[in-house]
Design goal:
single chain; 426 residues; alpha+beta; BirA Bifunctional Protein, domain 2; Rossmann fold; 2 domains; 8-stranded mixed β-sheet; 5-stranded mixed β-sheet; 15 helices; RNA-binding
Length: 426
Amino acid sequence: MSKKIQAIRGMNDLLPEQSPLWQYFEHQVETLMQRYGYREIRTPILEQTALFARSIGEVTDIVEKEMYTFEDRNGDSLTLRPEGTAACVRAAMEHGLLHNQTQRLWYQGPMFRHERPQKGRYRQFHQVGVEAFGMEGPDIDAEVILLSARLWKQLGLYEHVTLELNSLGSLEARQAYRDKLVAYFEQHRDVLDEDSQRRLSSNPLRILDSKNPDMAEMLAGAPQLLDHLDTESRVHFEQLTARLDAAGIEYRINPRLVRGLDYYSRTVFEWTTTALGSQGTVCAGGRYDGLVEQLGGKPAPAVGFAMGIERLILLLETLDLVPADSQRGPDAYLLAMGERAEREALLLGETLRDALPTLSLQLHCGGGGFKSQIKKADKSGARVALILGEDEVEQGTVGVKFLREEREQASLSRDDVAEALSALLN
RNA sequence: GUGGAUGUAGCUCAGUGGUAGAGCCCCGGAUUGUGGCUCCGGUGGUCGUGGGUUCGAUCCCCAUCAUCCACCCCA
């Protein structure tokens, strides 16, 4: 076993049994995006390392220790994208999509992070993301949240996820709050655990999120982010919650919700579930008004989110929300007995596909006895078996045996098989 | 990166210090051309890998790799 070449740790094969569920999910997403007027953008999975260092933040865990970074043959430092927003902003800027205009974009694809794999967390995983540029009001924040809520409703997940909401304020307000928070933590340095000591200089806001019960009391007395918002951000946040209230979307304001990426400001949100163990975040995002400028563009407000497809698929499976017809077999399975029948079957299959564009027909190949062929027809999940044996060849007919319903076997003339078959199946 | 659990047939798992079994799957037969149920038979494993203890290791010990779960972090 160990000598055999295996997939890279944390990178999974998606097997045929799984792919219908993925396709179902992807189809839901595509139509949803289309319905809200979002257009798809596809960017390379490799980018210059500097793009991520400059956007996500030099001292975040992602950039410090989780990126797949390596040298190109010419010495450039390249990185497999750990998230989608940076590349999306880069591409939009590069092609002038942000020039004095608004944009609603979405993307989908693999992301890479070198973390220890566990349930719902993989080294290659897939995200669907949404990014809206050039709109600074709370209406667009509300729109992307409503869009995600609609997806949960479509998938039957809405009752199983919770929306958590917070505001980080403007970059300036956040910086001021950060200083105040660090000062508070300095006073209680003896209570801070090892992780938090480390974060004190790198990402003090994250300390608020700690699960360590020994620090709970100290954290409860810490200055609150929401008390230190600048006026504009507070108004923005109030207008957002008012819009969500009007739309009937429930949420929980979580003053300790801080995102791990540096570029967020003002609105941040997460959709979480308790059904997946410790990887409970299924979708997360927020506003990142400063990022475009930070990456060298003309300042443009932006808001977006990303959802983890593996986690959502896992959730659908856990909650038994997999649509039943996603595993459907072909309409017909065509089997043939004997050399001459085999040759005719190949052509008959083509004839039927020509005449009936929506027909799904699987041809039996590889010979075998009648019994084994019909057994395979059954296993394929097909609704009918089309039988082309020596007798049928002789008589210029084809047999139609229904495999999943009590119906008499039919014999169709080869002259008008397509019409007759189509009529039988409807 | 840290901690814990687990690695035996394609899958789910038993099992023993004397080199292995079940169920499912797959193939064939009972039924010269009619599946799902039943019965019978068959294919399939260097017992994750390397080393150690032992007359002998799949079992005991060590290491290593992988998977899973949790921490951390995050989608």
